[in-house]
Write a structure and sequence with these properties.
Radius of gyration: 25 Å
Shape: elongated
Order of helices and strands: EEEEEEEEEEEEEEEHEEEEHHHH
Number of domains: 2
């Protein structure tokens, strides 16, 4: 939902150590757990950096040099809180690959999986006193299918439920909601995982003070290095505010200095242009957890694909009785447009002679001639950009008549979706 799309810290309390065997062979700069490592993780180890794949050398480590260590008891402890706003977080989300486009990638608690690496820019809104919820807005680049460029997302995590709402394509032609209940390590036998709690920083141990070359143009900063399991955090020594985090199978996260503030989450969580309006994101939830976002319910706007969602917008229960599926919240705009002639023609698998060709070239010329006769403003294929073709595909999905697809399924015909 995009997934996809959950911050690095989403599974902080769930870390395992090197007991997973470190199967990708990452060095101690890329991975150094606070436990299960011998010798223990030390200065400038576990720093990580820009990573693009599971390959051991496919990352650029951050520069690092020692400034400390000091007595940990004298250092300002890392600051978090129940209600806060982070308006600019740069991330590479690392999560277990469960679908080709990495929409549903979610950070795991060990490194044994094949992972997705998704660059994204995120805003984070935490409201734990009343809503007990975490909301993120993200612009994600580089999804595996490259669907019409970047994917814009809003991710809601409240209690055991998570909703990943995506807008696909530069024109917002198709919307998507993934309803899910994240579980530790993606194991369906494990209980659901709630949003990260405000006191997770209490688990962190002081390692050293280091000058780090912070990514995304932030530059060198002298920061306190803290760790817990495979999780590492670097904080401003004067304020305790987190500047940078790294976990080798969860992700890289850099908080733009000056973008973090306590409180204001409910007021700040506003997005422009989603489904054509300004939206206050917390209005999509209720304080008692009884409401799912409108975008994930059966009454969601047209052109919304709902994935694993019940009619009320809550995730389906995978108990064998309720199948997981994809459905449209509303009928495609092309429904009921096919007349009797269209349906009769669709039942014929072999086209008439006037629509055939002796070879691929003549067949293409015949079809192009027919197309230009009925749509004279058609544009040659080589004049289209990849993005324009992808957006055309998305438009055609919306314009289809589902009766034709039902017919193709009944006939087990290759045209079926």
């Amino acid at each position: 939902m995009v997934l996809r799309a959950v911050v690095t810290l989403a599974t902080l309390p769930l870390a395992n150590g090197q007991a997973d065997g470190n199967p990708h062979g990452w060095d101690r700069i890329r991975r150094c757990d606070h436990v299960d490592y011998d010798p223990p993780c030390g200065v400038c180890e576990g720093v990580g950096g820009y990573a693009a794949s599971d390959e051991a050398n496919d990352y650029t480590p951050a520069s690092c040099r020692e400034e400390g260590p000091y007595d940990g008891s004298t250092r300002k402890r890392p600051v978090w809180g129940p209600d806060f706003t982070e308006l600019k977080s740069h991330e590479i989300l690392i999560g277990k690959k469960t679908d080709p486009a990495c929409f549903q990638a979610f950070p795991s608690n060990d490194s044994t999986a094949t992972n997705c690496y998704k660059p994204q820019e995120v805003q984070i809104f935490s409201e734990m006193n009343n809503y007990r919820a975490l909301i993120l807005t993200a612009n994600q680049a580089g999804n595996a299918w490259g669907v019409a460029g970047n994917v814009s997302s809003v991710i809601y995590h409240q209690g055991p439920n998570m909703w990943i709402v995506n807008v696909l394509g530069r024109l917002g032609l198709v919307n998507q909601c993934v309803c899910t209940s994240p579980r530790e390590g993606g194991d369906p036998a494990k209980p659901e995982v709630g949003p990260v709690q405000y006191n997770w920083v209490d688990n962190l141990f002081y390692v050293s003070t280091e000058t780090i070359g912070v990514e995304y143009g932030v530059g060198e900063m002298a920061l306190d290095h803290w760790a817990f399991g495979p999780h590492h955090a670097w904080t401003d020594p004067n304020t305790g505010i987190i500047v940078r985090m790294w976990q080798p199978f969860n992700g890289l996260q850099v908080f733009e200095p000056g973008a973090w503030s306590e409180g204001h989450a409910v007021d700040d969580a506003v997005v422009e242009g989603w489904f054509g309006a300004k939206t206050r994101l917390f209005d999509q939830l209720s304080t008692d957890g009884s409401k799912a976002p409108d975008w994930c319910t059966k009454s969601a706007p047209i052109n919304t694909f709902r994935i694993k969602c019940q009619d009320n917008g809550f995730p389906q229960v995978s108990n064998g009785n309720v199948p997981s599926h994809v459905e449209m919240a509303s009928a495609p705009v092309g429904d009921d447009k096919a007349d009797a002639r269209d349906l009769r023609r669709a039942k014929s698998k072999v086209p008439r002679d006037e629509y055939k060709g002796d070879d691929f070239t003549s067949m293409s010329a015949t079809l192009n001639e027919y197309l230009l006769r009925h749509a004279p403003n058609s544009k040659d294929c080589d004049r289209w950009t990849v993005e324009e073709l992808q957006e055309l595909q998305l438009s055609l999905i919306m314009l289809r008549d589902s009766k034709l697809n039902d017919l193709y399924h009944d006939m087990n015909y290759r045209r079926k979706i």
